[in-house]
Amino acid sequence: MIINVQTGQYRSRVLRPGLRRRVVVRRTREMSPELRRAVGITLCVGLFVLLAGGSFFHWISIKESSKINQLQVVAAALDSANIELRARKAGLLAPKHIEAVAAVRFGLHAPVDGQYHRL
């Protein structure tokens, strides 16, 4: 049952051997001097832009690398200061230091045996 009457069988379009088309090879002419000069200038400008861009990004990367080195030096200094401050804090919070400060400033001393009572 064919729905469309005009539908036919598919046949590939193969030409008979005598009627085959020949591939035409185009011969390229030499470039004119004006075109050659324009292409040369374009290539030179492109190369210059490429090299300038590479140098610019190299300069930026070196600059950022020096900033990173400076920040690492600052971070190392802050780490050593942090260690010193933590050691000082630990010394100030030591029970012996607290008792010594209480004895000097406020005249407080730890009770000896027999001085304290439980209520």
Quick take:
The protein is an all-alpha fold and 119 residues long. It has helices at 33-92, 95-106.
Commentary on this structure:
- The chain has 119 residues and is mainly α.
- It has a domain at 32-106.
- Helices cover 61% and strands 0% of the residues.
- It is built from two helices and no strands.
Share of helical residues: 55-70%
- What integer value in Å does the Rg equal? 46 Å
Instruction: Report how far apart the termini are.
Output: 113 Å
State the shape. Answer: elongated
Structural class, by secondary structure, is mainly alpha
- The count of β-strands is 0
Report the sheet-strand fraction: under 5%
Alpha plus pi helix count:
2
Oligomer: single chain
Ranges with pLDDT <50 over ≥5 residues? none
- Indicate the mean pLDDT: 85
What is the element string, with H for helices and E for strands? HH
Q: Let me know the largest β-sheet.
A: none
Labels describing this entry:
119 residues, mainly alpha
What layout of secondary structure does this protein have?
Blueprint: H1 33-92, H2 95-106
